[in-house]
Design goal:
This protein has 304 residues and is an alpha/beta fold. The protein is built from ten helices and ten strands. The structure holds zinc ion (2 copies).
């Protein structure tokens, strides 16, 4: 029989002992199947902070005294990231600044930007904004890319440029475990096994890139924001396409059938790709000279 034979199916798919892994209380628990643990509402923020601190340390994401740019879209992941990075600040003597890319999608972007101003102010940090319109472009569908992919590409291109302009050492983005798994699956399905790295080195002209939430599921960052009562921006994006995010459902189903499945796949893929670059190397865009993994960077493609 396979692992999914009758024996396994009859066992309850729970690894923990019905108590919080930090304080042992037995009520108000959240089952974090990804970690094989349960944690109570009171301890969850501390649990997430520990995870993120250990990721930041293990991958040397941030050096002492550095300036950290945190990408802030206003969504739950980015708000959780900002809140968490501020808690890591003390011992490392780092400075934190929030970075926002204004996509120029009319009223929606105006409200989003205003929300980010409020969120940054509530956290006592400065918000630096890069306007897509300032580059003489408008975000629009490109070839066979859905709009969400175009926005993602534009954000990926402009965040490091904004970071460089204001002199940050590292740009941190709110990519979660689920984002990484979706990227892995997309790459696999297009015949290019690749797993991105939690941290990408900088160049003399570009800041390092880091994903401190790499090992935190999206569901858990959402819980973090809700339990801490943090403001976030939840207006539905007028350009959102469910289609672009459909592969995330695969991992939720896997996790339901095989607890800790997401984490196992993530680590397994990273191990399998050890020694390979694991990510596409960047080269200068032939039009503007900025680093990109594409033939022409998305900003220049939108100008064509
Ligand atoms: Zn607890
Ligand atoms: Zn370019």
């Amino acid at each position: 029989m396979t692992d999914f034979g009758p024996d396994r199916a009859q066992r309850p798919l729970i690894f923990h002992r019905g108590s919080c892994c930090l304080c042992k209380r037995t009520d108000d628990l959240h089952e974090l199947s990804e970690f094989g643990k349960a944690v109570c509402s009171n301890c969850l923020p501390r649990f997430v902070l520990r995870k993120v601190r250990s990721t930041v340390n293990s991958y040397n994401m941030i050096g002492k005294g550095e300036t950290v740019g945190v990408a802030l879209s206003g969504g739950k992941d980015s708000v959780a990231l900002l809140d968490l990075m501020l808690q890591l600040r003390g011992r490392r003597h780092i400075r934190v600044v929030a970075l926002h890319v204004d996509m120029g999608l009319g009223e929606y972007s105006t409200r989003q930007r205003a929300a980010c101003q409020r969120i940054a102010a509530a956290h006592g940090v400065r918000l630096e904004v890069e306007q897509v319109a300032a580059h003489g472009i408008r975000v629009r569908p490109l070839g066979d890319w859905p709009m969400c992919a175009v926005c993602g590409g534009v954000r990926r291109a402009l965040l490091p440029r904004l970071g460089r302009r204001i002199g940050v050492d590292v740009v941190c983005t709110g990519h979660t475990m689920d984002d990484e798994l979706q990227a892995i699956l997309k790459n696999l399905l297009s015949g290019k096994p690749e797993a991105s790295s939690p941290v990408l080195p900088g160049t003399p002209s570009m800041p390092r890139k880091a994903k401190p939430l790499y090992f935190v599921p999206e569901r858990v960052t959402a819980l973090y924001v809700e339990l801490k009562g943090l403001e976030f921006f939840s207006d539905p994006c007028p350009e959102f396409t469910e289609e672009a995010h459909r592969l995330k459902r695969v991992w939720d189903l896997l996790e339901e059938l095989a607890p800790m499945g997401k984490v196992q796949v993530l680590h397994g893929m990273r191990r399998a790709l050890t020694g390979k670059p694991g990510y596409k190397p960047e080269h200068p865009c032939p039009e503007c000279g900025e680093p990109t993994t594409m033939r022409v960077c998305p900003i220049c493609r939108l100008k064509q």
